[in-house]
Design a protein that fits this description.
disordered N terminus; single chain; six-stranded mixed β-sheet; globular; alpha/beta
Length: 264
Amino acid sequence: MSTTPVLSNREKFPFFLRTVPSDANTVQGIVHLLSRADGNDSKICISTKLKIDSLNWGAADYRQGIHDSLLAPLECKTSFLVFLSQPTLAAFLDAVAEYGDACRASSPSPSPRDRLAPDGSRRLAELAWIGTDSWSGWRFRPADHSLLNRSVIIMPQTGRIPGFADYVTACGLRRIPSTPGCGNFAELPTLHFVSDAVYAYAHAIKAIQAALAPRNVTPRQPPPAPRVHRDQFKFYNGIDGPPEYSIQYYSFQQARWTTGGTYV
């Protein structure tokens, strides 16, 4: 979901400013929550869209740049990749495939980087992928299935919020020329909320890390409260529901997303 400058008016339309997160802010929130608690001995590595966008894909040192910016951080015990767009993920998969082949051909002995081989061997216990719900509707190429094994997405599970439709209607969206499509407004049970989305991602990463490295994980921080799920629609100080998210993983054998549980 995106908004126009008209809808970003802080005084007139506070809802749209509060509940439409940007990818960059979400990533920064995740990194902040993890790095603040884990200290210098953390085994978590996070590679984000921000690093990928800084690469010059046409440079002569293409493979070295891929390694320095993306693959080198993954040489720790437990690694997490946070991708927030389909083109970014596709570009990285291409880079891993090309660099991985060259790495295996030139290296006399296996290295941590070899765990990123396109065939998925020797890397499944070392690498986890975190993605947005847009991944679940994307058809991956057959060559990507092994790389995406054990991928994780977190999808918001929300109910209709009483009063929300009346609030949007009261904003007079149908009278804003620069907002096409608002005449067909419909409330969908898939709203994204900033604070809950950031905490759900961070807690999912913590849960995965606890399973892979139980001696090197800090206690989970409690989610913000109170909740407003299924309550009358209103604003709290930086806290807007919903509290429930389903956690899904990508199954290589079945080539589809499977629900593994629900975060509340």
